[in-house]
Amino acid sequence: SADVAVVAAAADTGLRDLEDLDRRWFLGPARTEVDEALDELRERTDTLDKLARLSHDALPYLGADGPQRGFVLVCTPAEARASCGFPGNWVEFVIDDGAADLVDSGRINSLEVDAVEAGLTLSDPPEFVAHYGRFDPVPTLRNISLTPDFPSSAEALATALDELGRPRPDVIAAVNTDGLEGVLRVTGPVDTGPMGVLDSSNVRDRLDVEQYNRFETQGERTDALEEASRAVVEAVTMLANLDAAAVRRLSEPIDRGGMLAWVPGEPDNVFVEMGVSGALPAEPIAGVTAQNSAANKLDAFRSVSMTLTPSTDRTAGCGTVELALGEAPAGSPAYVVDNAVGLPTGWTKSWVSIYTPTPVLSATLDGEPVELERREEFGHPVVALFVDTAPNSTSTIEFELQQGATDEPVTLVQPSVQPYTVTLTDHCG
Length: 429
Hints:
Layout: H1 2-19, H2 28-58, E1 68-76, E2 86-96, E3 99-107, H3 108-118, H4 126-132, H5 150-163, E4 171-175, H6 177-187, E5 190-191, E6 197-198, H7 203-214, H8 218-237, H9 244-248, H10 251-255, E7 259-262, H11 270-274, E8 285-292, E9 302-309, E10 318-325, H12 334-337, E11 348-355, E12 360-365, E13 368-369, E14 373-377, E15 380-389, E16 393-401, E17 410-412, E18 420-424
Parallel strand pairs: 1-4, 8-17, 9-18
Antiparallel strand pairs: 1-2, 2-3, 4-7, 5-6, 8-11, 9-10, 10-16, 11-15, 12-13, 12-16, 14-15
Helix pairs in contact: 1-2, 6-7
């Protein structure tokens, strides 16, 4: 933090000196070169000033001012949820003066049992309660990540942990297999016991797909997953003498939404500007969340694509969403291929929410008109419907948008195992 501040201050001083330079004697191309260099330097000094501020503001969360407690959800997109994926495990740690200690870990159902016994229900935040309360994300904490707005999940989880009598976290974070890939780029291979040696080349396939055929019973698998989560976090707490090149290996997984962090009760916390808060943007958005409603793991074999033509002030827009489901490997356990909603083996049910810059007027599912649930989430128009998809088939939703000009939308992409894309086009048809 101090080093970045020194560099930023030097850059600011240098920029001022160059701006004060008498440039009348720079002629023609030389004058152009100097002006372009000054423009670039202004942009670089702005970046350095931001880095200096963020690195300073992050110090308290590394225990600079006293112990900080972190609570991390370890998620898998093999059973889809809107933000990090299905939160199967959790890890709790304390960091003090830069040194981290793992203090507790467990399966998500251990907290759910406690929440049921305590009679907890979802009470906050209001927007989360309004849209997702019917799915009982408290006490059914495996549904806490149903919203694509991670701060809402974190606030709800912090309230639940507090009501359970657990220490209130200073930071709530989430990491999925994308994020774990980045972590293992930094730590190197980690022996996780029954789950084997995990490294950055195998962690996504091992945890998103292989784990479901690796163990004879679900109990063995969940115990192994808890042990793996704990082993990776312990490896992180043992790290020392990291250089910048090692930490940069985290960048790509973070950009894919593999790691999220939020400070409950502080809406303007440092993680927002760092870009890891997972908050829905204020700008118009275009995207789709397809969440598992069948209690199986078939999302590991499903791809999702969305194509959207935004409306203008003269024309209505349109869009298409395709959910393509493959087939699980022969011999996959029942909890992978069966479902809790009465569909045939190998089928899945998804709760699909479509986010658009202007409201959806009408839609069809596989060519037939379909009723839509309509809502507005943080000011964004959303329509939702349940979609059943057979193995080796594609479910197609086509929709028309209300006419009306908006700014270019930000694309919203849900964590997934298979490809998940949002494409903007300039014309319908």
